[in-house]
Amino acid sequence: MSSAADNSVKMWIFDSNDGGARLLRFRSGHSAPPRCIRFYGNGKCILSAGQDRAFRLFSVIQDQQSRELSQRHVAKRAKKLRVKEEEIKLKPVVTFDCAEIRARDWCNVVTCHMDTPQAYVWRLQNFVIGEHVLTPSSSTVTPIKACVISACGNFTILGTEGGWIEKFNLQSGFSRGSYIDTSLAMQCAHDGEVVGLACDARNGFLISAGYQGDIKAWDFKTCKLKSRLDVGKSVTKIAFHRPNGLLATVAGDMVLILFDTVSMKMVRRFEGHTDRITDLCFSEDGKWLISSSMDGTLRIWDISLARQIDAMHVDVSITSISMSPNMDVLATTHVDQNGVYLWVNQSLFSVSTNTENYASGKHVRNVCLPAVSSTERSEEEQVQNLGESYKSSIKPFVITDHQIPNLVTLSLLPKSQWQSLTNLDIIKVRNKPIEPPKKPEKAPFFLPSVPSLSGEILFEPPASSKDTDISTTKNTNHKMSELSSHFSQQLQFCGETKNYSAFTDYLKGLSPSSLDMELRMLQILDDEESEDLEQRPELQSISSLLDYFIHELSFRNNFEFVQAVLKLFLKIHGETIRRHSMLQSKVKKLLEVQSLVWQKIDKIFQGARCMVTFLSNSQF
């Protein structure tokens, strides 16, 4: 085994005739810090371009599938010319774009390199660089600074430092037109550098941003200018979300501005960074905008609420970010760090529910970078991390009482589990055997024997059906008593600590039949009136359950599951509640909460029903 400064570990085997070593297997990464990253393959892989002139594909699931994309016989050419491999490779990648739709047909990745007037295409299916080299036909040769691949995967558009924009076909590598603004003195698209390009989901228009602050919308097919917008300040970076058509721009004054590309109007403005913004990206659903800066902060902005919802500070500034399509992992690269760091969604967002501090930008959490192994940190830090992991494990218990208004939270249980609670009687009738099991008329011909040390054959007497029924009944009663005592303990603990989330998790773990049996164990069988009726444990348990239902319905937690349990509860204990006045006040409060929640949900349903009715009756 050997390791070196090139960030690789190699295993050599000495099996040749002359005793020399040959490379058996190896693991490697970037030998210089990566500059830009992008999730690929439904979030299973990450494309990374580093300052070491390597273009790599990292597997998030299995490290054995990570590899460097081939630049065609680099080692052989370097050996022939007697130079280092880094001198043969292409210059470091400045930016790139990828598309998965035509990955099996032709090249689906385009890269722009430092101080290079050509763009290169890559085929990820074969992990190799493509045959075509895309060279713009501009009269002035300038480096390419921006690129984008169309939603159909057939075209790529390149933007140069001199303001030239040209469209190419990925299959043939031929030019398919240039975007020229006739109002400019120079026959090009922008006066200055093209800092970003974006294409909509249906190849209708192309968005280009110039460094001078001019944003232009072009017709994708005819290459003619449709509209323009002047930001009023220099633009350094853009990010586009195709499904909702929002364009995020980074201005020179460290302000994030969002534009609607259909109306070409500003819709959001976010301030908070104190140093140069290095990268930004949208979440897959378009609700969040994530930005990083050289001040060491990573900020999450909620677009619908128009405010910041979280912020964290790391010791090493972030240079590039990318969020997975499933929104469960965020990948980051950092200054002078050769690795790609992964952040799980649960550890990314804070436990605190005071969003006002985050909205004002005053509260920023200090976090450490994810470690490769636990040996890299001291024992004190490991103990601290264990405490933080314990806090993160109880995170759902903390935030369940603070739901977003006018929304409900579902339990994520299988549909059959909570639907069975409301149909247990039908299920029992359906599963009832048609005929009772028949007893054997005669004893078996071969009687079972019991082994003994003396060698004598001892026959085991067959157990009578009566003894079997008694033992089965005892076992069943014992299990029912254990289950009932556990249910009572959980309910009592829930009433004392008001930790309703833990009790909900306990109910979710019970099967529908077990939950039905637990609720029936609380039934009051005798109808005698007594002075200490309120002290009966059954009534206390029913009262605690009513408090639990009121709390869960008030905060709209586990909505469909609580509704099913409530229906079963009222079906079993409805008569008991009617007879005892101490429970009727809580039931009235429960009715008020239930009616209020259903009115809000019915308004949401009514809006959806009206929209569906309108669309179904419309003729397009």
From TrEMBL:
It comes from Zea mays. GO terms for cellular component: small-subunit processome. Signal peptide: none annotated. InterPro entries: Quinoprotein_ADH-like_sf, WD40/YVTN_repeat-like_dom_sf, WD40_repeat_CS, WD40_rpt, WDR36/Utp21_C. GO terms for biological process: rRNA processing. The keyword Zinc does not apply. Residues 404-616 form the WDR36/Utp21 C-terminal domain. Keywords: Repeat, WD repeat. This is WDR36/Utp21 C-terminal domain-containing protein. It holds the Pfam family Utp21. WD repeats lie at residues 187-228, 270-311.
